[in-house]
Amino acid sequence: MTDNTRRRFLKTLLAGGGMATLTGCDYLSEKPWFRDTLAQSEKLSDAVQHAITPRKAMAREFTPADISPRFRANGTTDPEGAEYRALAANGFRDYRLKVGGMVENPMTLDLAAIRALPSRTQITRHDCVEGWSAIGQWTGARLSALVEQARPQPEARYLVFHCADRYGRSDSPYYESIDMEDAHHPQTLLAYELNGEPLPIANGAPLRLRVERQLGYKMAKYVMAIEVVDRFDHIGRGKGGFWEDRGYAWYAGI
Amino acid sequence: MARTRLKTVYRHPLPVRIGHWVNALCLLILLLSGLQIFNAHPHLYWGSASDFESPWLSIDYHWSRDDGYSGWTRVYDWQADTTGVLGASPGADGELEGRAFPAWLTIPGSRWLAMGRSWHFFFAWILVINASLFLIWALFAGHLKRLVPTVEDWRGFGQSVIDHLRLRHPTGEAATRYNILQKLAYLTVIFGLGGLIVLTGLCMSPRMDTVLEPVLEFFGGRQSARSIHFLAASGFVLFVAIHLFEVIVSGPVNQLRSMITGYFRYHDHATGVASNRENRHDG
Ligand code: HEM
Predict the structure, then answer these.
(1) Domains, in order of start, for chain A
(2) Domain span holding position B126
(3) Is residue B277 included in any domain, yes or no?
(4) Which of A35, A44, A134 sits opposite B125 (nearest CB)?
(5) CB atoms B206 and A59 under 8 Å
(6) What confidence tens digit (pLDDT) does each residue in B198-248 have?
(7) Looking at the structure, do residues B94 and B201 belong to the same domain, yes or no?
(8) Cα(A154)–Cα(A46) distance, rounded to whole angstroms?
(9) Which positions 22-51 of B are in contact with A (Cβ < 8 Å)?
(10) Are the beta carbons of B249 and B280 closer than 8 angstroms?
(11) Structure pTM?
């Protein structure tokens, strides 16, 4: 082989290889079977992370000096529904949280009742799936206390959070789900205060979920109802959450 | 010129060849899907949280009705217009759109964070499994010993640097062994960069952070870990660039063949052969 043909051969190899890789990856990204294959690694990450970190392992808590000057709000920042508008206009005095599904004791709570539950205040880092982080101080009811009062049936496995917002132009309301392990974690809260003030609408007023060991999209804002279930394939498009229905992982621990 | 006597040695055992190509595929996919992830928030910070007012690196765009999209890149105080490649580049329809890294550098090509993350984590697992199997094999097969510099290697350090700069490569039997710069590069990349990128990757996991707090502290917080992850990825790009360059100047066909079939050809000095076309860079 002469140097010239060799060089041409290598150039073609590199350029052709590069093109083939990228078009190949785009082609595969559209195939449901391939997406399902890639998504298998989520189960592996889930299993391994649960195996090597204690069930009750705590997310780091920061000091007041660490609090971010501006806590960025993502997703919906001002829900449009008439029902929510009316609640907000009245300072959420008419707001009622419904707790139902597979529980022995279905409940309806107003904000005063939620504030009367055992509470917790924590300064934690919020990690968005986009890549940024913000530190804020949250005060809220311990979800574990609420769950204990509602008394889930033995087969119950997940908590589904139904929300007041529809993200973007979507026709489906936001929702999310977590398992019983996270529901009972001491840092899992239904937060009603951010940085010592009532929760702003942009950050999920009157009530938002905090699940400190997962990414931001798990932490449903504008929570209107909690449904206890043993599976969630009949809710939304069946993947356990608004973003999960759009390709994101249900387990958002990484 | 005297006739040369070609010798063939079995240089790369099967585990090295499989490990090498699986690794290459993983690195390529991890890099390109990583750039897709980066595009979701194209700013890097130091510390635990993002101080949105002062990223140390940003790749973003301006849009105006009159001028359309223009891309800019800023590193600390240095800023440049990078329209066409960084910040704003042609989308599927050929029109400029605002995106940090261009479509031809991301997996998938379109803006699709969920899919980019799927690719990234799947191939992160393949990389970790491949690297673990390789290291276990290397330990037991004594391959790591081939990578540890000997006293003799260190003595030849200066000469090796000069040789590399002059693009002169070992010929004959010496070409079948790793030279000192090669050994150092491979060791740094495998244990330094490799360890760094896996650790910083894990440090971005909120669940892992419950037990990795001391490591996170060492890196300076989650956003620092993200920055270091990006820099380590850039380090890999640099390594691969030099690696490919060295392959090309030291006889690409022979090198490629040896990494596929295992067999490496060289000219035996003992038979009095001075010149080796495959192993010498001649312009
Ligand atoms: C075990 C191995 C790895 C793990 C666990 C891992 C994990 C991650 C995670 C969690 C992110 C998302 C960061 C964010 O939220 O923005 C990320 C981003 C990224 N990864 Fe990896 N990664 C690994 C290996 C690699 C390798 C080998 C490369 C490149 C050669 C790479 C290149 C990137 C890039 C460029 C980004 C986007 C920019 C950034 O966030 O730093 N990753 N990776």
Answers:
(1) 59-246 (3.90.420.10)
(2) 2-42+105-271
(3) no
(4) A44
(5) yes
(6) 999 999 999 999 999 999 999 999 999 999 999 999 999 999 999 999 999
(7) no
(8) 23
(9) 28-29, 32, 37-38, 40-41, 43, 45, 48-51
(10) no
(11) 0.92
